[in-house]
Automatic annotation (TrEMBL):
Organism (species): Ascodesmis nigricans
Family to which the UniProt record says this protein belongs: Belongs to the major facilitator superfamily. Monocarboxylate porter (TC 2.A.1.13) family.
SUPFAM superfamilies: MFS general substrate transporter
Name of the protein described by the UniProt record: MFS general substrate transporter
Highest rank taxon of the organism: Eukaryota
Amino acid sequence: MADLGLQLTCSYRAGADPQQLEAEHPPDGGWRAWMQVLGAHITVFCTWGFINGFGVFQSYYVEALNATPSAVSWIGSIQTFLLFSIGTFTGRALDAGYYYHVYRTGSILTILGIFTTSAAKSYWQVVLSQGICCGLGAGLMFCPTIALTSTYFSSRRSLAMGLAATGSATGGIVIAVIVQQLLPKVGFGWTARVIGFVLVVLLGFSNVVLRPRVRARKTGGIIDLEAWKEMTYVCFTIGMFLTFLGLYFAFFYLSSFAKTHLGLPQSTSFTLLIVLNSVGIPGRILPNYVADLIGPLNLLIPMVLIGGILMLVWITIASHTSLLIWAAFYGLFAAAVQSLFPATMASLTKDLSKAGTRMGMVFSVISIACLTGTPVGGAFIQGMEGEYWGAQSFAGGCMIAGGLVLYISRIYKVGWGLGKA
């Protein structure tokens, strides 16, 4: 998040690299920095908000396209995969000084994808428009913007990135409400177009306010090979890979579960998804405030473990009220994981001129988990003749395993003690 009015003032040490000095001394506040938080919030709204609200499309597409839940989940999974997978390239593009080119291209692709989705008539047309086109657009915008944000803050970095990450909750809520209110009245085509018009306005604003701060680093490869020699970084990457294998299953399948297992009407199942995203607002802000005090990795580990346990608790849910309560609790902890993840990633990067590259590398690895996790869950459901407990066990087990590997990462960083991590 970039600081719109502050100029970096730092005295030059003898022999110091001006670029390195600039990277070492972020403003940590001010009008320009907080405007970047707002721009990043909008970016996350337009990328992750669309994905967090995918559950409303999941249940609609199964009926409208006459497709299996597993086949439909590939649409959202491809979108998530592309958002993360091209992070290695877009993160390096930020470091090299091509942020504007990448972000504007992403904005155009995202808007184009939504409007072409509104005219789609078949499964493969939706895959191409919403899955691939919107996914590419989101990938071009998300990683470099999150990395850009991290270069503006030091002591308040987790809070700033948590506020930015709240965009996935507000986006999920707004998109779910739009679909809930308009789909029965004007049909899918105009519902998607309304979402498209909303994103046109928001992305127009974010294109104006987002500004890179650290000078371009033209030299250097796309991949920082030195990062893979750091066991803290390696274990963190593996831990988040396992976590993301299970994290988004509920966001994709909660609405379908409510309809098929509890017999709830579509409007009520959409309300559950709104609840799941609504609790994500405090779930992204409060943990990140605490993370600035005790360290983001220290907080991320219990959030992941509790989220995994809650996924297993979902197996026992058998009523509307209990599902509503469960959705509120899971949404709270899942939101904390989503927002603490980039904040923790940024805390593992000492040289901010490499923030985009190192963050993009992790994004590319976990993109495989995002691509396969929910379709595997859908395959469990299909193979078990509509039963969800196998998929819920898979998702919960992956998250718990991820939390344990993250703890190993913490040991490599600060040891067995109670230090800030």
